[in-house]
Amino acid sequence: MTIERIVLAVAGFFILLSVGLSYATDNQLWLLFTAFVGLNLLQSAFTGFCPLAIILKKIGKQSGAAF
Fold first, then answer.
1. Cα separation of 22 and 1, whole Å?
2. Cα(41)–Cα(49) distance, rounded to whole angstroms?
3. What are φ and ψ of residue 57, in 5° steps?
4. Range(s) of the domain holding residue 47
5. Neighbour tally for 42: CB within 10 Å
6. pLDDT tens digit sequence for 6-64
7. Residue 52 covered by a domain
8. What is the DSSP letter of 26?
9. Cα separation of 11 and 43, whole Å?
């Protein structure tokens, strides 16, 4: 998997996890984590800065076209 696909997979997992936790615990504060992930995806689309992508590049993952 390329860096781009890993970032998308991790973001999707975190969003589903936080929504699930919000539903399961009846605590809407988990939705703040969902908003954080969404905002991070949005800012990375415009700035190109993504902390996870930097970490993955340092451990040797290859970059490639996401689609």
1. 30
2. 9
3. -65, -40
4. 10-58
5. 10
6. 999 999 999 999 999 999 999 999 999 999 999 999 999 999 999 999 999 999 999 98
7. yes
8. T
9. 13
